Amino acid sequence: MFELNGHIASSTTGRLRVKNPLLKTVDVQSIKKCLSDLKGVISIDVNTMLGSVLIKFDPEKIDEEKFSKVFNKCIVKAQRDDSEEKEEDEDLLKNLPAEIKKTGKSIYKKSRKIENQTMAIAGGLCVAAVCTKLWKLHAVAGWIFAVAATAHTIRYRKTVFK
Description:
This protein is α+β, with helices and mostly antiparallel strands.
């Protein structure tokens, strides 16, 4: 039986699914490239949302011991490559002048404040226009609100989809 760095979720003849939280953060292409060099591997599907990898292989051609060693090395290597990239990004941020960091944060805060104020005013105008039956004003305020809400959603998409 395979001894892999992760939990074997399912195993049938010629098909193996392994779950490992590290697979949520690794580079898919590096895992595929690393595993595709193995003799007997037919296809590799990595799902970073679930943290799993599905490997289809020819059971007659695969050496389970060698496969286990290579799979574990691939996981560790992909994680190391990912952490090295993060360290490089952090080093770049540390070396930025303080003025640039402040400017970036202040622009971010100002644009967020403008979005929030725009949504509040446009939302209020929508309600007031409906109450007074000013349908053109309601339509214009609705469009303004929709644009501001879209900008707000785009800004926070990383937080929303995590």
